[in-house]
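G., before I forget:
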Amino acid sequence: MRMITTVAEMRQWSDHERRRGTRIGFVPTMGALHAGHLSLITRAKTNADVVVASIFVNPTQFGPREDFASYPRTLERDVDLLAQEGVAVVFAPPTGEMYPSGCITAVRVEGLSARLEGAIRPSHFAGVTLVVAKLFHIVQPHVAVFGRKDAQQAIILQRMVRDLDFGVELDVAPTVREADGLAMSSRNVYLSIAERKQAVVLARALQTGFRTWNEGERKSAVLRALMMNVLAEEPAARLDYLEIVSQRTLEPVAMVRSGTLVAGAIRVGKTRLIDNWWVREDGTGEF
Ligand code: AMP
């Protein structure tokens, strides 16, 4: 496995591979890897000849009072895990390599970026689209794999790729969960033992909604009320939002049908956690 830390070398490697006809798969991450990240690598391998994983804690997607400084950084362990997974290249640039003279250019997906997470983290998605656009230009992948856990991020990036004609195929992989249902997240390490027990309430609430939907209930108001009842069982978990929206517009919908996203965010102690379930275009659901 090759470790690359400069833009020039990464681009050169990709240019060379593309000329040879290699299909490049790409998994962007912020490191502190867990089984959710590794599932994206496995998925990328099935759809590409080689896989590049990036590790970059991107400062532009953190708000001024958010956890950029304390975000877990476990580079050595991450590199070992990626080597075991058979990744061809780890691209881990220092911040100054990605933003040598700051950045005064914006990549903003209007509207979608202001809903749900964007209502609470106003500059978050502008940072995400900026860094992913830069990484796509540097790594030049044929296919990039993202996690459904960050459903709004995947929806926004799909729109960016379409609007700006990136020649990159996006693949969105299912959420990997702990045994009790909690969605895996690098931020779960912030949770104390007591908070870890409280945090699972979001997955429990969403799962209750998902089960009831599978039993035939379609009304958003009924499903939301059921999920809110479960959330109320854990007063230590503070709700940021629980919304039932169209995946196309991220605007609320009255009925949960094909193309609906049910997304929630809670705070437990100082930790913010998100999770969701959704209904595919073919009418099947996924939690
Ligand atoms: P992050 O390192 O948090 O920026 O995440 C990197 C990628 O991993 C993103 O595409 C995430 O959506 C994805 N990801 C994070 N957690 C999970 C999970 N539990 N299951 C599947 N994918 C995930």
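The domain at 2-173 is CATH 3.40.50.620 (Rossmann fold). Residues 29-30, 36-37, 39-40, 146-147, 149-150, 173, 175-176, 183-186 surround adenosine monophosphate (CB under 6 Å).

More on Monday.
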